[in-house]
Amino acid sequence: MVNKKLIVELKSILKDNQLLIKDQILNRFSHIWKTDQPLQAIAVTFPETTKEVSDIIKICNKNNQEIIVHGGLTNLVGGTETKKNQLVISLEKMNKIEEVDDKSRTITTQAGVILETLINAAAEKNLLLPLNFGARGSAQIGGAVSSNAGGLRVFRFGMTRQMVLGIEVVLPDGTIISSLKKIIKDNSGYDLKQLFIGSEGTLGIVTKVVLRLQEAPKSRCSAIVGVNSYELVVDLLKFLESELGGNLSGFELIWKSTYNAMTESSELIKPLSNNYEYYVFIESLGSQPKQDYDLLENRIEESLKRGLIIDAVMANSDKELKQIWQIREDISILASKAKFDQHFDISLPIPKIGEIIDSITKELNKLNEVKTIFPFGHIADGNIHFIIGRDKNTPKLIDLINSIVYAPLKKFKGSLSAEHGIGLDKKAYLYTTRSKEEIKLMEQLKKLFDPKNILNPGRIIF
Ligand SMILES: Cc1cc2nc3c(=O)[nH]c(=O)nc-3n(C[C@H](O)[C@H](O)[C@H](O)COP(=O)(O)OP(=O)(O)OC[C@H]3O[C@@H](n4cnc5c(N)ncnc54)[C@H](O)[C@@H]3O)c2cc1C
Known about the structure:
Blueprint: H1 4-13, E1 19-21, E2 43-45, H2 50-62, E3 67-70, E4 87-90, E5 97-101, E6 106-110, H3 115-124, E7 127-128, H4 141-146, H5 154-157, H6 160-163, E8 164-170, E9 176-179, H7 193-196, E10 205-212, E11 214-215, E12 219-227, H8 230-243, E13 248-255, H9 256-263, E14 278-286, H10 289-305, E15 311-314, H11 318-329, E16 340-347, H12 353-365, E17 370-378, E18 383-390, H13 395-406, H14 436-449
Parallel strand pairs: 2-4, 3-4
Antiparallel strand pairs: 1-2, 5-6, 6-10, 7-11, 8-9, 8-10, 12-14, 12-15, 13-14, 13-17, 16-18, 17-18
Helix pairs in contact: 1-2
The protein binds flavin-adenine dinucleotide.
Flavin-adenine dinucleotide (FAD) binds next to strand 3, helix 4 and strand 10.
């Protein structure tokens, strides 16, 4: 039953174009990634300012109204799914960049700005926002902060967490906490902003952030190489890190099955033959185009001589560079190779990854319903993604696949979520990665911030 009092109160603070109710909601979606289920909700609200977010939350708090926060809706863990008795706060109208400060090397922005817009705004001032991942054209910075997104350059520049200098959030009781600082060092007590980063909107709504930028690189060089054993992949990573003078910015691994599936289509190039067990995409960012290219080329040749790699192709133009990286960046298309797909995003100690993925693959291959297994990952961060395709969609099968992939996590002190978060979908498996005591402490924090459990209820914990 729609709470009429709630709608009346919302109408008193919002303009017509900031509130959707009843049939107006039907052409919106709760989660655009591979679903077309219409959104269910009491109402969708579109605040334009932090004060409006606070006012909406105060009304919801008073009415014990559950709220689900919507950013760019690209999460892969059911974080933005709604029930029909819940209210949505969408940040899409909080889409203004407030300042790009090239002297402090910071960008101050509202939370609803699309990540790619921020990357471009920084680039216009010759600065780099190093946060970069496949969904950058749709994900909002508030969503990226709330899920502590990672991506392709984490091992050089860190996750979103490392880029946030200042934050403004609205707590579940409507209190505004504003700490939009541009300073790098601040040891004045608890680092409160870190609580909101990665907590998937369960503790507060991020309304603004200050992000740290880097000087834009003047060169970008890339290669793809073929390697025949996982041990050599690890040796290659160590070799390049020590030899490229800090320029190494990307080291992405895809397994043979994934490379073959990506390059069998005529739309993508096939820079190397499909004879190798592993394919590594290498990127270096620097300040001296000619020297940086020569340095990478020389170290690739040296890797060939040392037997670390068997084959290599350097990108000789921007076009070639884009074509090579497209094989890695477009990997999500492999989800359509089977009727149903399951995605994983686990973390493991780097040296152990090869043998663990082999044994997971062996176990998965024993299941007749599993049709495709595509491992790939941000290997320099110890982060493996899996897209597993199956021809059946029963909860029992999903659970069986989950338990096979998550089985090694406790023993090897890994994580069930390197990047994507827990949301609703992975909550039942949180115990594979966190102790009872840790989960209890998270629950206590949630109760402290949100005693009525109205903000993003059910995500991560309860
Ligand atoms: C093709 C593809 C590639 C991807 N690649 C990567 C990758 O390499 N690395 C990676 O980390 N992720 C990746 N993702 C996952 C996803 O893009 C990220 O998690 C992204 O940060 C989510 O941002 P969003 O704005 O879409 O958030 P949403 O999906 O809208 O929301 C994510 C969560 O944060 C909450 N939330 C959203 N905005 C706010 C806010 N302002 N305040 C408080 N809570 C909020 C939501 O309620 C939800 O729980 C990928 C997704 C796709 C579809």
